[in-house]
Design goal:
This protein has 295 residues and is α+β, with helices and mostly antiparallel strands. Helix content is 26%, strand content 23%. It has one domain: Clavaminate synthase-like (Double-stranded beta-helix).
Length: 295
Amino acid sequence: MALSFRKLHRHFVAESSPIELRNVRDPETLTEIRRGMDEHAVLVFRAQPFTDAEQLAFAQRLDGRLHQSGGSRVIAKNRLGNEALSDISNLDQDGEIMQADDRRRQYGLGNRLWHTDASFRDPAGRYSMLHARVVPSVPADTEFADMRAAYDALPAETKTQLEGLRAHHSIAHSRQLLGFEFSQGEQDQLTGAIHPVVRTIPCSLRRSLYLASHQSRIVDWPLAEGRLLLRDLTEHATQREFVYRHAWRMGDLVIWDNRATMHRGRPFDDSKYRRELRRVTTLDIEQPAFVASGS
């Protein structure tokens, strides 16, 4: 049965027909998933029984090299033992719910800000793949915003103003917005990266805003003026008409294109309910030949 996609939002996001991704190795199906990403930017795959190793292997088959330099590595050891597998949970090293004052929990609160994965690195992140292992009995949703549709809706004069602008992205900046304190040694490891404010998505050739709470400033602009522009762009891009809210089910795998979207986690009572998700993010580099061949 051929793979098909059903739209969940008028601008973006689609749900896949039934498929077990851990067994997908043929180039034709991998190509169809990439085409779906080019069109919809966010794809939802239900009932995926991934192990950690299977999730990592699928991500590599689909999109090549994996991001292994998450900002959290500077404050705590990865509970999962693999820097390519991000632990999006409220669990400590012993698998228990973290205390409110746990430093890793405080750092993780930054995921509730609108952001783009790994924009503070160069190369940045391309696809993120988040898999639901434990879902609480209360809503613990994730929101996505379509940066392509947001760009399309900008006035022509604003589009002209944005051409050629570059912004500095720093995960230290986004955490410090919430009062998180880094040691000097930690901050020295989080220098950030510079990326264009507007990007052209390969294949689809659509223009997209490239925004994130990690953006600390517009390069070569006065600091206050640049931050005001970034604030206004984020307010515009996260209007309800551009936003989809995903209610997680056990086994969901959601893949999104970080070049074309922003996202944020919504709050829930994380002192009471366990939630465990695993994320893999690929690097925004040219896909190697072995990915195209499906091997």
